[in-house]
Specification:
single chain, Rossmann fold, 5-stranded parallel β-sheet
Length: about 210
């Protein structure tokens, strides 16, 4: 398969990193695979729904990052992995898994992927999506209420109690580990084109 290009796309919740990731991947019918940190939220089958609601999902300890690192290494070696699937409506890992096949380009996406040194070291390019906090909270409200069946009150409460303080403590400082800082994520056409060209060149080099 040759050398695998690993691209990390990080940024705060609602920054536009998922939009950027999906728009890039949509331009390539093959050769690119996506692996999301959110799918590696730890399982909490031992807790009630109410207890799971109170957990801090924006702290590095909320993720099984060790498993993600192991899976990325497997993919780089050319082996497929069985990725967990997270169900946001019940705040828990579902019983389903997804098969991720190895490709020449792996895109890793998540709010805290630059916070972990071992994970950072697996990436060739690290892109941080930098978006104004007001815009991020508006996008988060729209997404969580419309797509994840949350109440407006619960979204605002979670933002003030965990999302904002964890962003300031972990996400924002991790920006220093980025090679490229992109304002506005998937809405930044110049950045999109640059990343697309980098991937195209990698896929088509001998």
């Amino acid at each position: 398969m040759g050398k695998v290009l690993v691209i990390g796309i990080a940024g705060g919740s609602g920054s536009g990193k998922t939009t950027l990731t999906n728009q890039i991947a949509a331009q390539f019918h093959e050769g690119v695979t996506i692996i999301k940190h959110d799918d590696y939220y730890k399982s909490h089958d031992d807790m009630t729904y109410e207890e799971r609601c109170r957990l801090n999902y924006d702290h590095p300890n909320a993720f099984d990052t060790e498993l993600m690192i192991e899976h990325i290494r497997e993919l780089k070696e050319g082996r497929q992995v069985e990725c967990p699937v997270y169900d946001y409506t019940v705040h828990n890992r579902s019983r389903d898994t997804t098969i991720i096949k190895p490709e020449k380009v792996i895109i890793i996406e998540g709010i805290l992927i630059f916070e972990n040194r071992e994970l950072c070291d697996l990436m060739d390019i690290r892109i941080f999506v930098d978006t104004d906090a007001d815009l991020r909270i508006i996008r988060r409200i729209q997404r969580d209420v419309l797509e994840r069946a949350r109440s407006l009150e619960s979204v605002i409460s979670q933002y003030l109690n965990t999302v904002k303080p964890m962003h300031e403590q972990f996400v924002e400082p991790s920006k220093k580990n980025a090679n490229i800082i992109v304002p506005e994520g998937g809405y930044n056409q110049a950045a999109m084109e640059m990343i697309r060209n980098q991937i195209w060149n990698h896929l088509h080099e001998e």
